[in-house]
Amino acid sequence: MSIKDNIEYINRRKEKAALKSGRTGDDVLLVAVTKLHTAAEMNEAIDAGITDIAENKVQEIVRKYDDVKSVRWHLIGHLQTNKVRQVIDKVCMIHSVDSFHLAQEIDKRAAQHGLVMDILVQVNTAHEDSKFGVSPEDADELILKIAENCENIRIKGIMCMAPFEIDPEDARPFFTEAKEIFDRYAAQEAAERIDFKYLSMGMTNDYEVAIEEGSNLIRVGTAIFGNRDYRSEEK
Ligand SMILES: *Cc1c(COP(=O)(O)O)cnc(C)c1O
User: Fold this and answer.
1) Which whole-number Å values give the CA distances from 90 to 52, 64, 71, 199, 221, in the listed order?
2) Atom of ligand 1 nearest to the CA of 222
3) Residue 229 pLDDT more than 90?
4) What is the pLDDT of residues 157-176, one digit of tens each?
5) Integer Cα distance of 14 and 209 in angstroms
């Protein structure tokens, strides 16, 4: 199957899952995760209708940026503060904000560029091994602190990941917990700098379940591009 075929297939399944939760396929944004894939593959996906792509590493964005057609770039992986300045003018949204320290650095760099950066707060609903993401109990404090202090940031929602390699059916509770946090803010008369729009959850293995549980942004790599070759990583 070609990249184009894969995207069409995902779009059909996305539509079906969205209908199950009273929405349509257009209510759910498909973001193509392109880590370890080439600029040529990325351009093929863009030609097939992909408008948004995501990388998990700053270096990969910087390396491929000039070779990829016009598209919206998302950063979805752990971000070190010393790398923020390399991507601040390249990405449209950072999904992986899980500390005030990181938010402050994003705020500072955004101000230097005269822009406002959209971010998602990464919540670790899996309460486990992953060292990334703020715990659900601490999410409110982080959201409010960023909103209060970071003029050059807009908090656009929540990102979460289910634990790796679990049955997608077993991922539902993790998605539900993220949805609860999302709903609380989405329903509010938005405070300044809090403008919840995205609930980023669902990957190749579990995007249909994630959509059924309310996701409106899925991050899909393998189902579009095939398996990643991690041996190429250190090139
Ligand atoms: C790699 C990655 C994805 C996509 O994973 P697939 O299983 O290939 O769809 C989604 N989100 C994050 C944060 C990732 O690092």
Assistant:
1) 13, 11, 10, 22, 20
2) 8
3) no
4) 999 999 887 899 999 999 99
5) 10
Q: What is the mean pLDDT of the chain?
A: 95
> Does the pLDDT value for residue 192 go beyond 90?
no
- CB within 8 Å of 194: residues ≥ 6 apart: 143, 147, 154, 155, 185, 188
Chain-centre distance for alpha carbon 18: 18
pLDDT in tens, 27-41: 999 999 999 999 999
Residues with Cβ within 6 A of ligand 1? 33, 35, 56, 76-77, 161, 203-205, 219-223
- The predicted model gives 193-210 an average pLDDT of 97
How far away, in angstroms, is 84 Cα from ligand 1 center?
20
203 CA distance to ligand 1 middle (Å): 6
Separation of CA 221 and ligand 1 centre (Å): 6
